[in-house]
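Quick one, probably user error.
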């Protein structure tokens, strides 16, 4: 019995010295493991006389029980200590102010572009994107604007070589699509265009949205009906359109399209410069020469086309007075377009 007390005392001392669960476990093995002190004691059983063995067995079992209880207590203590240490190490100050993550938003040009695509795809238009580097042929010649044509002066062009240029208009997409697809056609072509032009309402790079409809029996009335639907969706339910005669080489007749001023409703205000109308896009019936250039028979098919500046629509819609604001990307400006 004395020896039992001694062993327990020794184990107790070793267990109290253990600094973590691992060393506590190793200590426990030294006493209760397969090669531990207790196992060694049991081996002594063989040396004893048969009569002494049950007494000895009982004592060893009593010792095992005491050791197990003692180690269980230490394990419990160790677990608690380790948890406390972990909590202390991972302490979080819940009163600390959080980090703000400011959320981004779509650029107004992207918003308007998406809105345009939404409105026109609802009317059955499909999106086609042409290249930004164009050949002179697609940007001008095929659009009934040959080299010496005075209309080339309407657009100051960035030429890359004699043949290639940065497209000045998304109208080039009309030709590319008609070469690929036979009518009926309902195409919408958004994209960047480039012109050597720079002031409060002009930027050397801006975005356009081109539209093209070609089928049998298309008339100017179809164009105006579609435009009315468009301005209702884009500006306001009461918005109306007005067509003014104009000139573009690729349309005949050509029109300039005005929308009734959505600020004053047509009475006249600073936005519409007192006229009640705001110019929003160019359009017209596709010139038969253009159809011919694409192998479409103008005696069978007719069509209308339109083109608008996306920045211009965005400026009108959001009351932006300088186009530069749309490329400077000042966050204080862009922040205002969060929903
Ligand atoms: N491409 C013309 C421009 O950039 C805009 C335009 C006018 C496009 C009439 C058209 C159209 O499709 O029919 O000024």
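Nope, works fine. Designed sequence:
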């Amino acid at each position: 019995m004395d020896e039992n007390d001694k062993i327990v005392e020794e184990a107790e001392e070793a267990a109290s010295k253990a600094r973590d669960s691992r060393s506590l476990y190793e200590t426990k093995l030294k006493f209760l493991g397969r090669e531990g002190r207790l196992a060694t004691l049991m081996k002594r059983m063989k040396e004893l006389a048969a009569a002494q063995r049950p007494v000895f067995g009982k004592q060893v079992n009593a010792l095992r029980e005491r050791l197990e209880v003692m180690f269980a207590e230490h394990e419990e203590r160790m677990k608690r200590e380790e948890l406390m240490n972990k909590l202390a190490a991972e302490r979080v100050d819940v009163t600390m102010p959080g980090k703000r993550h400011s959320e981004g938003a779509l650029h107004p040009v992207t918003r308007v572009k998406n809105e345009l695509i939404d409105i026109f795809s609802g009317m059955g238009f499909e999106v086609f994107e042409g290249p930004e580097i164009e050949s002179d042929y697609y940007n001008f010649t095929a659009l009934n604007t040959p080299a010496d044509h005075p209309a080339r002066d309407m657009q100051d062009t960035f030429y890359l070589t004699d043949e290639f240029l940065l497209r000045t208009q998304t109208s080039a997409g009309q030709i590319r699509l008609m070469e690929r697809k036979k009518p009926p056609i309902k195409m919408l072509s958004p994209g960047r265009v480039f012109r050597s032009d720079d002031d409060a309402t002009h930027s050397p790079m801006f975005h356009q949205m081109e539209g093209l409809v070609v089928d049998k029996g298309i008339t100017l009335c179809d164009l105006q009906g579609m435009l009315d639907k468009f301005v209702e969706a884009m500006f306001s339910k009461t918005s109306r359109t007005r067509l003014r005669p104009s000139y573009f080489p690729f349309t005949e007749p050509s029109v300039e399209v005005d929308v009734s001023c959505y600020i004053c409703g047509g009475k006249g205000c600073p936005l519409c410069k007192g006229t009640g109308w705001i110019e929003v896009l160019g359009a017209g019936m596709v010139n038969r020469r253009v159809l011919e250039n694409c192998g479409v028979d103008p005696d069978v098919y007719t069509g209308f086309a339109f083109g608008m500046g996306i920045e211009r629509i965005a400026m009108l819609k959001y009351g932006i007075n300088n186009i530069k604001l749309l490329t400077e990307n000042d966050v204080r400006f862009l922040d205002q377009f969060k929903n």
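Residues 2-89 form one domain.
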